[in-house]
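Molecular record:
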Amino acid sequence: MSSHLHTALSLTASGVPVLPLRPGKVPFGNCGRCADNACGGRPNMKSPGPCTCPAPCHGWAAATTDPGVINAPMWARAWRDAAAVAYHPGGAGLTIVDLDSTEAIAWARASLPATRIVRTTRGEHWLYQGVTQSANAVRPGVDVKSTMAYARWLGPGTGTMTALPAVVRALVMKEPAAGRPGPQAITVPARAMGGECRHRTPTYLDRGIAMAEQRITAASSAVHATVYRTFLAVLSTHGRCGCLTEAHTARLFIAAQAKGESARHCTDAWTNALTRLGL
């Protein structure tokens, strides 16, 4: 077993979705069945959900916590050729503030709450608990990596991780280009917790979320109703035991927003589903 594969399996045991990186810190290219968009581009680099191809295609969307997928024959060559291990921070319920200069680090120390820090080649990754949209160059030398992004695994870091602060969420809320909607912050209403968990493995929940994302993405009409019914179905199955995290619900909100739903409608639909189920 390669050292990268060993690291990947160790991370998945903690619920961190991983993928291999080739030299240059870039994902592996699409396999033959997905080359030239032959798979239809779903999911692709801009889709909200995970990759359904059995090979490590489609960049961040290939990240998985399933050891069976990671050990699959179609991943074997990728792990043999891998130069590093990456992970999907949003899928792990995390946001990374990527600081690539001494000036950026100085700004973070003066402006952000202390949290866990991972040293990088050029600077530091500041890790926060919580998810948001990803965005590059939100400040000089500062990127935000969370949903639909990947980061190289450089170790667990040092310090105590704290909750994602509003100042980081605000960094990605830039003025939209003319005629185009800007990214919306993800606000997920509270849900019931503490019931008996019926999930035998995390894969059961992850597959349920992936199916829900696909249902929303495939909607060609009645998107409002589809989003509400999907939220209702997810909550009726997974909403009572506490296993449903902000990272899972954020994936559903992102899928809905990709279909044109507003953040306000997503929140209303989620709240109505909670109310209907008595959660």
